[in-house]
Amino acid sequence: MRPALMFGALAFALAAGAAAPALAQNEQFIPMADYRIGPYAAGGTGTFGGFIDYLDMLNKRDGGINGVKLTWEECETEYKNDRGVECYERLKKKGPTGAAMFNFLSTGITYACIERATADKIPIVSIGYGRADSSDGRVFPYIFPLVTNYWSQNTSKIKFIGMRSGGMDKLKGKKIVNLYHGSAYGKETIPILDLQAKKYGFTVTHLEVPHPGNEQESQWLQIRQLKPDWVILRGWGVMNPVALKTAAKVGYPRDHIVGVWWSGAEEDMIPAGDAAKGFIAAAFHPSGTNFTVIQDIKKYVYSGGHKGNLEDMSRFGSIYYNRGIIHGILNTEAIRTAQAKFGNKPLTGEQVRWGLENLNLDDKRIKELGAYGLLQPLKTSCLDHEGGGAVKFQQWDGKKWKLISDWIPADKDMVRPMVEESAAAYAKEKGISPRDCSKE
Amino acid sequence: MIYREAGQLKSSYEADQQIFPILQDRIAFLGLLAAAFVLVPLVGNDYWFNAILIPSLILSLAALGLNILTGYAGQISLGSAGFMAVGAFAAYNLMLRVPHMPVLASFFLAGLVAAVVGLLFGLPSLRIKGFYLAVTTLAAQFVIEWALTKFSWFSNNSPSGVINAQKIVILGVRFETPVRRYVLTAAIVALLALAAKNLVRSRLGRAWMAIRDMDVAAEVIGIPMLKTKLLAFGVSSFYCGVAGALWAFAYLGSVEPQAFDLNRSFQILFMVIIGGMGSILGSFLGAGFIVLLPILLNVAAHSFFRGGVSQTLASNLELMVFGALILFFLAVESHGLARLWQIGKEKLRLWPFPH
Amino acid sequence: MDWSFFLEVAIGGLLAGVMYSLVALGFVLIFKASGVFNFAQGAMVFLAALIFVSLVEKKWNLALAFAATLAAMVVLAFVVERLVLRPLVNQPPISLFMATIGLAYLIEGTAQGILGAQVHGLDIGIPDTPIQLGAINVSRFDLFAAGVAIVLVALLSVFFSKTRVGRALRAVADDHQAALAVGIPLEQIWVIVWTASGFVALVAGILWGSRTGVQFSLTFTALKALPVLILGGFTSIPGAIVGGLIVGASEKLAEVYIGPKIGSGIENWFPYVLATLFLLVRPEGLFGERRIERV
Predict the structure, then answer these.
(1) A86 to chain B, minimum CA–CA distance in Å?
(2) pTM, whole model, 2 decimals?
(3) ipTM of this predicted complex?
(4) Domain extent for C139
(5) Which residue in A140, A166, A218, A383 could disulfide with C255, CB within 3.0 to 4.6 Å?
(6) What three-state secondary structure class fits B163?
(7) Which residue of B48, B266, B299 is the best one to mutate when testing the A interface, meaning the one whose CB has the most A CBs within 10 A?
(8) pLDDT, tens digit, for every residue of A357-392?
(9) Binding partners of B (≥3 Cβ pairs within 8 A)
């Protein structure tokens, strides 16, 4: 019977895949739970392309990290939580020492794996997404929302709007519309915006765009009625170009729309064409290829007819690709940091966790990495799993992104209490007793 | 030779009406239970419990719920995931807000809450039929998802709308390890499946099937339309609700309303159709097929094409093969996997003398 | 109440509704002729738009790219007839529905696997800028889309009522077996109707694609078409247009006027609730044929 044969073949493949032997022992395994199909495939292919190319470059240029070769395996999550969990379970024990850490590039999968990963002692790195309150390392020892979380980023955005308006005191009486994607992700910044509105005296109106957001006529007509001074775009996927197109249609100036970084990739702008010109988006790193590290990737990975992980070279140096490089740098630097303590050998997730918690990338180190200007200085600790917290702003000129601000630090005094309060509530719900960081 | 009913004479109505009238079936069923509760917990590993068995079982339960509604009572619904969401959030809120709430009771009550919501959205079925009904049940799907995201009371004011399921403790025993969560899930699913099997053989089940086959005729012979159809929605939603609660508590630990989006509803419907409409066994086979196949394809694609084909193409090939296999199975046997199983049994009955 | 704003929302909604109708039309064509609820229509919109935009980016002339894409859709129609419809003939509607879901995966995988997951912009030279009509702004692009929809419906109506093939199509829709008995070739009819629906998908894909960009989310346009179908009836071409107009206008008005009272973001489910309420009164849809059931 044909179906039986087919199943037999598949079962064999499963067995073969599961039993792939770990031949060389001096290898550090980094799982790649990525997504290459579905509505967010552009983000997945770009970011994981950069991530994998960076690891590839390290292997080819330096022979890995201090002689430990990096290996990886991809697993398709389709951006779905249950598939993500399956990938986590499939890859967590691969390699001689198990998975070093996981990057899911999905807030939902990150949430779903928090408890598992903590129990299995494998860190989860969520760079620029995930649970904002997991910045509190006392309650979330294995979760690392590195660089900046959604709440921090939001305070930077209000600071930026303040700067543009001529000072934070000028925000008083201003009208801001928060146009958000109708999902858990979209809702997440509502409380902190309300808090800031109270502090600075502006009014904020929250307008929801239902998923997927390919039609926004009514929202933008409402915005035209409200005549806000600024619109904050908390978009996702197709919602971004449609927002800009519809803004153009109702005549709202695009240079008064400020987007989150999920609204700030080339892929979000290209479909909007001319309507995107002038739009401003937050970024925790710039685009472009003018960095030593990216030139190294070109030299070591894409030379002599070799191909890297990225298929479409027109995306080399794009926002998503560079975000992947940031992923590569931060993850491997954590391994390097941990090696300094535990020795130059393949490390367990628990050991890598120590590295993630003791990251210290100052300007000198970032220059050595060839990523000056690409990455901001970053220092993590037991208390603070976020590290950086600053954001730059970039403007779309119709062809590419142009940086229009320096690093704008977050309002940590406002974010930190919220993080701690939320983390404490989580700890209470889950019966976790927070670590005492003075003893670490 | 081995499998045949010849010689198994029935001397009472009870014997004739039991679930598995054939001795070999009874033995096989007991064997299956023994395997599920003794053998699997002994030999399974974390990967199988966490990533395969628990989600497949839970989705089987949801598929079972939908099968009651669609396969037995003939009402197509695309809102199953919405009812799962109701169950998950109801169980969470019951545990959160009612002091000393036992976990199992909260699952049961969550199922009831989902049933009530299901009844409400089942009301239009009295007038609307076929694909029109399918599309109106989408209203349930979207309204529920919207309400759970919109009103933060449901998620205890969590800023992201994600709920963290409480720990499962039953009579002082903590169900935290994968194997324990598996056993708990399997027990609940087995119990409810058995209940369903009996339900569809009851007077109510026969009334459902009468409505499915021809509702006007059913009404003419005196089957109360309102009560029977609504009960189908209620019971079906109960099953989906319990499945949702298990999804949050026994499987993921934390869920957001988007975990129960339209895709999940479709996924459950696929399970019912591929598994076999109007078959309890089919719900399990269908869930196994829909959950396992993409994973198998992913593993296969990544081991066969390692380095050779581009990864993006490999991922897309998986999707294509998945689609093609659905078409293939529908062409071979459009009544689902359960029917294939049945045909197999028929053949076995005649074996080794097929003529 | 600000009446000019009300009018503007209503008109914006009507024009958005036309865009929904374009997708709904594809569903109607196939349902009418073969009784199949074609879930793959969204995937077809995506595939058509992706082929078209890939050709345009290779500097093809717009008309030539259109013709080439249409040829691809004809090929698709043949493939579907061979691989999906013929093996599944006489199966219950739910199996056929399931088969079209399998088909949707196949199309999505093929499209993204061969043409890439990249997001494309599409500019067909019609500016999406408003023109003033009194106190009201109307987008040029929306007007163009409405014009295209009118032409399309006119073409399809003529095709169905005046041509020989069209009459055969209606015969098939009425009764498969009777049509077969009088010698209408069912396979050919299927290919023709899937081609027609591929043509509609191409038009919808170009219009939607130039507004939202050509990307995977074009497959979601199908969701917007479903309430249109319920309101208009699964088998009526004018119904698809009228249903689209009603859904478009009512969801925009609801979002703007009811939304702020109960929390915004209601336009995703509002059309479904509206359609459900409507069906309670008229279960066969606006233009659907009334069924009489006998025992």
Answers:
(1) 5
(2) 0.90
(3) 0.88
(4) 3-281
(5) A218
(6) strand
(7) B299
(8) 999 999 999 999 999 989 999 999 998 998 878 899
(9) A, C
